[in-house]
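ok so I'm stuck.
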Amino acid sequence: MIAYIIRRILLTIPLMFGISILSFGIVHLAPGEPGALMMNPDISYEDRQAFIEDYGLNDPIHIQYIRWMGNILQGDFGDSLIQQGVPVSELIMDRLPNTLLLMVVSSLLAIMIAIPFGVWSASKPYTLTDYSVTTASFLGIATPNFWLGLVLIMFFSVQLGWFPSGGVATLNEPFSLWDRLHHLILPAFVLATADMASLTRYTRSSMMDVLDQDYIRTARAKGFKQRKVVYKHGLRNGLIPVITILGLMLPSFIGGAVVTEKIFNWPGLGLLFIDATFERDYPIIMAITMISAVLVLIGNLIADILYAVTDPRIEYGKGER
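replied:
not stuck anymore, here's the structure
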């Protein structure tokens, strides 16, 4: 297992270089230039060219990439083009705790709701319960995050006034755990909805396959109660395919957070990324893109490790899986 993990980590090095080259090229092919969006339209041509020269934006793209990658390898993401002089790492660290809080709560919410409902649906196939859970799952998958977020804001914030419409905390108020949770409920639910629905469907499908196995029928024939058959004998094997989804949920929450954080004005990496995209702030875009790529690779590695932990039949040899 240790040798396998080391090999996987070493294989991510060329993969990360490939991702960085593609991402850097795509970002720089986007129309517009960062200098035009941040500077006063009345600024002189000389000052505009001085800005472009200072940041090396007029260099060939391969020179810009080599310089950027050299800085990345030293742990330097560069400075923001829009907020001149402010390091990108500082902006990310300021926003990262808010995104992590939103991701953790959304992940727990999705897992705590999706897996029990998926198992419940699979244990009562083709009944009203199963059809109800399936319909709710399809609605959750089909509903866009931005539309659901706006509907919840209109209903629970504007009409009922139960929850704040945005932000991470009440302005000019001392820190309060309840106030923070109050602001967190709506965006966490919106972010968790799509993954919650997908995870429910995967759990149901996996459990349906497991509950049709011979050893499950044998357990039922021995007189074991349905709850024991489902949760003790079936659940562990039924969750093995679901682990793939759980591993890949990590980066998917950052992708979903881009829209959710914008709608709820949640000051996290998603909001920082979408603002940087509109402003063509290349260093911020590339930094968050690379962080997302790392999370994808970590998610896949965690999923593989959890496979072995959950199913002892899976072994990682020296040369093959």
